[in-house]
């Protein structure tokens, strides 16, 4: 509870600083920014084991340190941006090791940490680990519930949980939308969005829709014989950065509605209405589009 509470206290201070700045209360903004930094420094001084590269916990209501590694105590400081830069790599590596080796591809989180585990793993480049956790079918996992005919969310991972209508462990759906379908908000009110889907090796397709204040944002993808088909729908008053996975390092051909917008390392997207820019960034083809419905076909060549 100490690490969890401190993380939320830090975020509270951050939000207050942001609100004060927006309202033009510079003095309050500075006060809350300083408070946030004090909280961050306090967390790291008290709970970060710099030698081991992970955060520790104390027993509830006592001073004794817990021996077991806690995924929540490490996922939350990463999610809230509280880990010092020089220790970030070690904290991430230890989290991945605990999930993949100690827990054999499983989570060990409850009502606070479950929300943050999959996004943290994904943001730090371990999408495959997050996907393994999300699709596990033995205890503890969402799949274990499904395999045992549960039709609602339980309060605990164990099948004999006292409540069978809880929602706090249902945050895996957020990961489906934000990372498998890739729908993420860039600017407030969905004025600008990013569509950057993750394509696991053993998943064939994803189809998602998000109803927003500006209209429906839709993202779907499907593996094809020689690449990937990606369809997106963007409201008329929204701009989208569509980031299509290349599925490798080789050359690709990208067409939109049958018209070529990327070939041989060059863009020809200006010929397609609604397509503003096309470029390659690492393992994705980045296409900026305005409102409309777009059908992208990526072929590996």
Structure description:
This protein has 8 helices and 14 strands. The protein has helices at 2-22, 26-47, 71-79, 85-102, 113-123, 127-135, 142-147, 172-180, and strands at 48-49, 54-55, 183-187, 192-195, 205-212, 215-224, 227-234, 239-245, 252-256, 259-263, 266-267, 275-281, 284-289, 292-300. The strands form 3 sheets. Strands 5-6-7-14-9-10-11 form a 7-stranded antiparallel sheet, with no helix packed on it. A hairpin with a 4-residue loop joins strand 1 (48-49) and strand 2 (54-55). Helix 3 packs across helix 5 (113-123) and helix 5 runs antiparallel to helix 6 (127-135).
Write the layout of secondary structure elements.
Elements: H1 2-22, H2 26-47, E1 48-49, E2 54-55, H3 71-79, H4 85-102, H5 113-123, H6 127-135, H7 142-147, H8 172-180, E3 183-187, E4 192-195, E5 205-212, E6 215-224, E7 227-234, E8 239-245, E9 252-256, E10 259-263, E11 266-267, E12 275-281, E13 284-289, E14 292-300
Parallel strand pairs: 4-8
Antiparallel strand pairs: 1-2, 3-4, 5-6, 6-7, 7-14, 8-13, 9-10, 9-14, 10-11, 12-13
Briefly characterize the structure:
With about 300 residues, the protein is of the alpha+beta class. The protein has 8 helices and 14 strands.
Features:
301 residues, five-stranded mixed sheet, alpha+beta, seven-stranded antiparallel sheet, 35% helix
